[in-house]
Amino acid sequence: MTTYGRGTRVLRRYGPWVLVVITATVTAAWGLHRSARPVWESAATVLIETRQDLETERRIILSDAVARPAAGRVGQDTGTFLTGLTIEVPPGANVLRFVYTADDAFSAHVRARALVESYAAYRSGVSVLSEPNLPTTPAARPLPRYLAAGAVAGLLLGTGTAFLRARTRRTIRDRDDYATLTGSPVLATVPRHRRPGGVPIVVREPGSPAAESYRYLRARLQPSLRPTGATTILVTSPGDRQGRTTTAANLAVALARSGRNVVLVDADLRNPRLHHVFRTTGDHGLTTLLDGDTTVSEVLQETPEPRLRLIPAGPRDGEHVDLLDGAQLARVLRAVQKHADVIVLDSPAVLSAADAIALAALSDRVLLVGNFARTSRQTVRRALAELADVVHDNVSPVLVNVPKSGGALVPRARTRPPTAPPPARDRLFSDADDVAPPAVTSHSYVDVEVEDIKDDPLADYHARTKTVAVPVIYGSRQDTTDDDEREDAEPEGTSPVGSVTTPAAVSD
User: Distance between CA 145 and CA 2 in Å, rounded?
Assistant: First the structure.
């Protein structure tokens, strides 16, 4: 598993945002380059014959002794006159280059000439190598400089705003932030994954990182499961549509596949969904148990997972919601505990209904599921405050829909394909041979086609053939007598006891 530093997580999470800002600033720089007014440039080169410090000469040119007379010639003040002036000092040469830029060619030419003449009159030993020219075309603006400046500005602006958004983010920032909010270590983080049709990812893609995350959650819960008796686990969330039903279904499947008898109870009477996930009927369920009309055995529904059974929400109305907050709920849960090692409760959101608080008071462990993209930090605080009076250090956070940039611990997906179970006929052969009477030395097997069971929701898990095992009672396993001798030894008028017409053993 891999962890990420906070600064890296922020940049990875807001990387697209930073790219958008950089693109916008580069585009703005290109537009500024295209829309900028053209400038005209006039240049002259002056040779200093005596050995002088060129930087000192540059300062003399910008002083009032030289600049003021030149400004007076063109009728401007010194500050306005020096605007647009650049004095370049080429390295290794005893020359100065005057470069004047202005909005029109004539102004640039006049100013450059006035300054050169004023400097030559003030300073002896100066000769003009090239007179100021009258430009005929505007100066070219270097586009790469504009683009580079825009990229640097965009990088700084994008990075700064990314960290600002991370600081002011209302939803859960990362794994560490959720642990800080809840005051408990995060049991597991589930990466983003598609949920087509609502089928649990542990069933649909058992080798995926998301399925491995639910098995990781199961491993983290193992120490808190009771060795004897049933353990009740409540799965809830601060708000709606934050992944609690998905977490409950996948956790129940993972626990069942570890060898425990699990009962999954849909206690969300306002918006039940588990009967759709496992494709079962919801005619009877928790509400009929609360009414006392049925027993637990009557409402337990089988699922495709051998050790997992479901109690759907059942028929519901306003009166059943009130029963979740009464003594009848405790009696129902005690009755369900007799049929399971682990009970997984899928409840409404804590801030949506009071049912979650009543269920939390009767649960051994409460999983508070937070969604990285939807759960706000404020709702987490409010949910914990609502649960504080009924739970005692048994609330554990689980974070779902987490990207790698969110600091998630992402398990590595299983690369080895699962081993296919042995064919059903192998077990038939073994069972038939194990129970064979002493006289039976071998079996004949006949496949009989049967019709599909259309009304059975578990039809996909049933065999499509029934095999009849017909024992053969003459001879022995080590008998090497050929068929002709065996036929001669057989008395006339007799038939094998285990013939096809009189099978001695039948196995489905």
Answer: 40
Query: Which amino acid is residue 213, in one-letter code?
Result: S
Question: 303: closest CA among 200, 443, 450, 184?
Answer: 200
Check if the beta carbon of residue 100 is closer than 8 Å to that of residue 41. yes
User: Look-up: residue for tokens 């991370």?
Assistant: 166
Residue 92 in this model has a pLDDT that exceeds 80 = no
Q: DSSP class of residue 241?
A: S
Query: How many Cα atoms occupy the beta-carbon half-sphere of 82 within 13 Å?
Result: 14
> pLDDT tens digits, residue range 354-389?
889 999 999 999 999 999 878 988 999 999 999 998
The pTM of this model reads 0.55
Contact criterion met (CB below 8 Å) for 145 and 32: no
Cβ contacts of 186 within 8 Å, gap of 6 or more: 175, 178, 179, 397, 398, 399
**DSSP states of 247-287:** HHHHHHHHHHHTT--EEEEE--SSS--HHHHTT---SSSHH
Check residue 104 and report its DSSP letter.
Answer: S
DSSP H stretches of helix in 64-122: 64-74, 78-82, 105-122
C-beta separation of 483 from 475 below 8 A: no
Query: In whole angstroms, what is the distance from residue 260 CA to residue 271 CA?
Result: 28
Task: Read off the amino acid at residue 138.
Answer: P
Q: One-letter amino acid identity for 159? A: T
> CA 142 to CA 151: how far, in whole Å?
15
User: Which residues lie across from 47 on neighbouring strands?
Assistant: 95, 127
Amino acid at 306: P
Report the alpha-carbon distance of residue 99 to residue 360 in Å, rounded. 80
Q: How confident is the model at residue 349 (pLDDT cuts 50, 70, 90)?
A: very high
> Where does 355-485 show beta strands of DSSP type E?
365-371, 395-402, 442-449, 465-472
Closest CA to 372 of 105, 219, 100, 175: 175
What value, to the nearest 5°, has the Cα angle with vertex 485 and ends 479 and 486? 60
With contact defined as beta carbons under 8 Å apart, do 118 and 73 qualify? yes
Query: Do residues 275 and 282 lie in contact, with contact meaning Cβ atoms separated by under 8 Å?
Result: yes
Q: Give me the count of residues in the chain.
A: 508
DSSP H or E run through 10? helix 6-13
Q: Tell me the two tokens of residue 180.
A: 């800080």
